[in-house]
Amino acid sequence: EGDHIEEISEVLAHVESSELMPLLMVLETLQQSPSVTIGAVRPYLQGQFRRLMDSVETSRGKAHQDRQEILRMQQELVSLRTEAQVFQNTKCSMCCLALEVPA
After folding, report:
1. What is the mean pLDDT of the chain?
2. Which residues, including other chains, have CB under 8 Å from residue 16's CB and lie 6 or more apart?
3. For residue 89, what are the contacts with CB-CB under 8 A and spacing of at least 6?
4. What is the pLDDT of residue 2?
5. What three-state secondary structure class fits 83?
6. 47 touches 19 (CB < 8 A)
7. Is 91 helix (H, G, I), strand (E, B) or coil?
8. Are the C-beta atoms of 8 and 40 separated by less than 8 Å?
9. pLDDT at 1 over 70
């Protein structure tokens, strides 16, 4: 049975490193074999759990950054709507022609 556990661990390590199957599919496949124990797949499950937790933390960080950017943009919109803006360019940045003050 020790070889059996080693083989399962080796296959799971390959599945994990190559991202061949999603976690749910791996669990469904393993569930079909009554001889597979939790002990045999524990390192794989722990690795997948750590990976999911890292993904959640990354997503939370990105969501926080996005909320900060949204707040900054909302403040900028309020400023653009309520405060006078001074434009000092005398030439168009695209064609370099002189800009004229609107009538």
Report:
1. 90
2. 44, 47, 48
3. 99
4. 56
5. coil
6. no
7. strand
8. yes
9. no
